[in-house]
Write a structure and sequence with these properties.
Elements: H1 2-26, H2 32-76
Length: 77
């Protein structure tokens, strides 16, 4: 039990240290909470855009496949 608690505390301290290092190395004038929130919002926006692109490509491949199947079926029969 103590080993898991120690691992959890060490992991939390590493994450906090990395976030603080990135915050201070960026040289921003924002407060820490504004910086973290704006970074998370920007990251979430990129993830949503990536999902939209993937879904659009998948949908266009599916529709293109259906159209091609129907056209080829009409040509053969």
């Amino acid at each position: 039990m103590r080993l898991e608690l120690a691992k959890l505390l060490i992991g939390t301290l590493i994450v906090v240290a990395v976030v603080l290092f990135i915050y201070f190395s960026s040289g921003t004038k924002q407060s820490l909470d504004d910086y973290i929130l704006s970074t998370l919002i920007n990251f979430w926006g990129k993830i949503v855009n990536l999902i939209i692109v993937i879904v659009s490509i998948w949908f266009s491949i599916r529709v293109g496949g259906q159209v091609l199947r129907r056209v080829l079926y009409e040509l053969w029969w």
